[in-house]
Amino acid sequence: MRINFQTLRHTRIASGVRGVAYRALIGDDTWPPTFRAPADRSLRPEASGNVYVHIPFCETLCPHCPYNKVKADPRAISDYRDALLREIRAYSEGPAAPLKVASLYFGGGTPSLAPEIVEDVISEFRHLFLADAEIAMEVYPSHATEGFLRRARAGGVNRISLGIESLEPLLLKRLGRRYSPEAALEAIAQSKVGGFEMVDVNLILGIPGQEVDAFLAGTRACIEAGADQLSAYPLFTFDHTPAGRSENMENYARVDDVRRLRMQRGVARLALDSGLRRTSVWSYTRVGLSPYTTVTRPDYIGFGAGAGSKSSGLALFNTFSATATRSCRSAPT
Prior knowledge:
Blueprint: H1 5-8, H2 12-26, E1 35-36, E2 50-55, E3 57-58, E4 70-71, H3 74-92, E5 101-108, H4 115-125, E6 129-139, H5 146-154, E7 159-165, H6 169-174, H7 181-192, E8 198-205, H8 212-225, E9 229-234, H9 249-252, H10 257-273, E10 276-278, E11 283-286, E12 301-303, E13 308-311, E14 314-318, E15 327-330
Parallel strand pairs: 2-5, 2-12, 3-4, 5-6, 6-7, 7-8, 8-9
Antiparallel strand pairs: 1-15, 9-11, 10-11, 13-14, 14-15
Helix pairs in contact: 3-4, 8-10
C-alpha cells in the first residue's frame, strides 16, 4: 500500500510534529513565527540595488496562490498607485538613499493588469538604473497581446515571466486560469518577437489529475515555442488558501510523490537536452542568458502591500493590507 505523503503532511499530527521539532531546534520564543510593528517606527531597510514591487490585483483569485492579492477594481488600482509612489518617494528621501538599481521586479497579483503602475514606478527609478539593469514583470498569458507587449517594452520592461502553469484545459480550470493552451503558447510566441531579453515560463507539476506524459508534452511545447527559461515547480497548498483547506484536500493534494518525482526528472532531461542549464531548484535557463529571478538575491528592498525586504540580517514586511502603508517587522529567528 502506497502512502500519500503529500496528503499526510497537511494533517494536524504532522503539523504538531513539525512544531515540536522547530521549537526544539530554534527555541520556544521563535515558534510559531510572529510579526510585530517595530519599536522604532522609522526603521527602514538599508539601501540595495535590487528592488521588488508588489502589485496585488487579480481578475480572479486562483485557489492555490498564497500571495497577497485582491480582486481588481479601477478605483483601488488608482489609489494603490498613489500610495505606492508615496512609499517609494519617502524611502528615496530618507537616510538610506537607494543605490544604483541593478534589478527591478514587478510581482503580484497580476502586474500586467496595471501597466500604468509599472510605467510610473520605472519612471521613479529611471535615473538610478545601471546600464544593464534587469526590469522584469509577471504577465498573465491572456494579457500578452502584441499591443500590450509593445507598451511594456517601450515602458522599459526587458524581461517577462508568463504564468502558464499548464497546457491542459481541465487542469487550467482546476487552477482557476482563464485562457486556453493555444493562447498560452501564442503568448510565448508573441513575447519572443517582442524584443525582450528573457522570456520565463512558469509551469506547475503535481496538479491532481495530471499525468506524467501529458505534463512533459506541455513542457516540450513551451521549449519549442521559444521559452528562454522554464520554472517548473510542484503545486504547493498553503493553509490560508482555498486549495489548502481540509475540505478541499481531496481536490488539491492527492498526487503521489513517485509521479511528481518522475515529472521533475523528466523536466530536467528535457531542459538539459534542449540546451538549458539548471540555475535553481526549479529553473532551467538558456545558456548565455542570466537567470530570470524574483527576490532570490542577497538583499533586496520591497515596496507595496505584502512586499518583503531583506537587509542586514532582518526580514521586514509591509502590511498585508492593500489599502494601508505602515510597515511591520518579523520576530528575529
